Amino acid sequence: MMKTSIYHLHALSPIHVGVGQAIGIVDLPIARERAAGLPMIPGSAIKGVLRDYFAHDALQKTLFGPDRIEKSEDIHAGAMVFGDALLLALPVRSLVGMVSFVTSPFLLSRYRQAARRAGVADLPEIPVVSQENDVLVTSESANATRAGAQSHELVILEDLDLYARSAPEATAWAKMLADTLKDEDWKPHFSARFSIVSDAVLGYLADTATEIRSRIRIDDERHTVAKGALWYEENLPAESLLFGVLGFDAAFDDSGIVDTRAAFRERLQENGQALLQIGGKATVGRGLVRFLA
Known about the structure:
By secondary structure, the protein is of the alpha+beta class. Helices cover 24% and strands 29% of the residues.
């Protein structure tokens, strides 16, 4: 019987998992879900970098399948199944507190459903954001401010002024997600800057608050931009948090491993996490992530 578990990706640098060239302002956009339009990382990309991570480990063949097939007896499936990495919290520029880690009821609902299927219990309740211009914050929010003569506390994200309300659900989710990061130094910063906005606002921010960088190539003779060598790349910002589902079956090769999930976790370094590079543009500092499972 297949076992499932949740994995998390914590971006340490901007991530560019692209879909090729596009017609529009952004020449190289990032991958997005077709229906929701939210940034994501395909499961195939996760599998590829993890296979490379296990390149010198005998477990690679069991978990990912054979690297090459020389005869029919070598054919077998890998024991692991990789789900897409879906957005859980998006870092957004904030007038106060520098940055806010923004999520929404829709994102939390998907996470809660996936976690429950993986056997995770005692998850916080999904909060209700009743108005589009409301935002739920923790009891000690670093983003909320009473700017000017405002009668209500505000959280100002990019160019959006949102009415802040301290909510126990926000505090509970902030603590739970901060614990998944497994970084004691970063946990208090994440918790203090955690915000829950409406689904409509999250959708708007997912479209407008990603990172766009221009790239050029210089003509050596003219010392100006070479003809046709100016383009724009979209990136998922550093400190983004994503999640996905891993499936583990019994080994299909002759290794005899029954609990492949336990074997996989034992190989991950530093208490169930690994440092990976995912997506393109690695030579210009893109795609460094912590994989936590």
